[in-house]
Amino acid sequence: MRKVLVMGEVRDGSLRNVSFEAVAAAKTIAEGGEVVGLLVGEGIAPLAQSLITYGADRVITIEDAKLKAYTSDGYAQAVLAAVEAEQPGGIVFGHTALGKDLSPKLAAKLDAGLVSDVTALEVVGGNVVFTRPIYSGKAFEKKIITEGIVFATIRPNNIQPLAQDLSRTGEVTSLSVDIKDLRTIIKEVVRKAAEGVDLSEAKVVIAGGRGVKSAEGFKPLQELANVLGAAVGASRGACDAEYCDYSLQIGQTGKVVTPDLYIACGISGAIQHLAGMSNSKVIVAINKDPEANIFKVADYGIVGDLFEVVPLLTEEFKKL
Ligand code: FAD
Description:
With about 325 residues, the chain is α/β, with parallel strands linked by helices.
C-alpha cells in the first residue's frame, strides 16, 4: 500500500482526459493507499473536484502567476515541493509533451526509477508490473520498480479511467510554494495546431498521407472528421509535401496515437508511420494500391480512390 501523487494536466482551462486515466493508474499503484491529485498553474482550483469525482482521494493545488504557462523550471519547483510535503511512494504523469519533458528531470532529482509510456499495468505478487511498447511498438516489455518511488508516465487513451462518481468528496488544499525566478519566461503562445479535437487524445483519427495530393485534398478528410467528432492527423509524407502542419504528424518522429478508430487515407504504411498508430484499436485503410503495406496492419481495407471513398463515408455517417 502506498500514497500516490498524480498530476492533473490542464489545457485551455479544462483537465485533459489523460489526467483521469492517470488517476486510474494511480489507484492500481496505490494498492489501496491514498491517491492525491496535484494541480499546478493559475486559476486551477475549480478543476480539483473533477479529479476527485474520477477517484482521487484529495487534491493539492499550487497556484502562482509564474506557473500560468508550463516551464520545466517552474513546474519542477512546484512538483518537488508537493513531493517534499507529501512523501509519496508513487508518482503518475500522462505521457504527454509535459510529462515527457518534466518526468525525467524530476526522476533524476528524486533519484527515482521512471517507467515511461506505460500502456497497461497490474499488480502481480506485490509488484506493480508496467507494460510499455519498445522498438516503435513492435514489441512490449514488462517492467517493475524494485526500490524507491514508483514513478510512471502513462500513454493517453490506453488506461480506462474509472467511472465518474459525482457524489465523491475530498479535501482540496492549496500548497504555498515560493517559485524562484524562472530561467525561461513564456511571453506569448502562438497556436499552430488546427482547431478541434486534440490529436493525441482523440477517440477517432482521420489521417491523410501523400495520397491527398495537396492542402486542399485534406478538406474531405476534415469533413469526415467533423461528422465523426474526430481529429485529423497526417503522415510525414503529407507534412514534408507541405499539405499540412507538422503538428499533425503521426509516427516515430511525430505523435503516437491509440484511438478506437484510425482511418488512414492515402498512406502507404511505412514502418515509421506504423510506429505511431499500429496500436489503434480498429484500423481502416483506404489506398488505391492493393499491395500497400498499410493493409498489413488494417482491420478493414478499402482499395480505391480516397477522393471517392471518403465523401461516400461522410454521407453514410451523416445518416446515422
Ligand atoms: P507515400 O509513401 O508516398 O504513400 C502515399 C500512398 O498514397 C501510396 O500508398 C499510394 O498508393 C496512395 N495513394 C495515392 N493516391 C491515392 C488516392 N487518390 N487514393 C488512395 N490512395 C492513394 N513517416 C511518418 O508518417 N511519420 C513519422 O513519424 C516518420 N518518421 C520518420 C523518421 C525517419 C528517421 C525516417 C527516415 C522516415 C520517417 N517517416 C515518417 C517517413 C516514412 O518513411 C515515409 O516516407 C512516409 O510515412 C510516407 O508517407 P505517405 O505514406 O503519406 O507517402
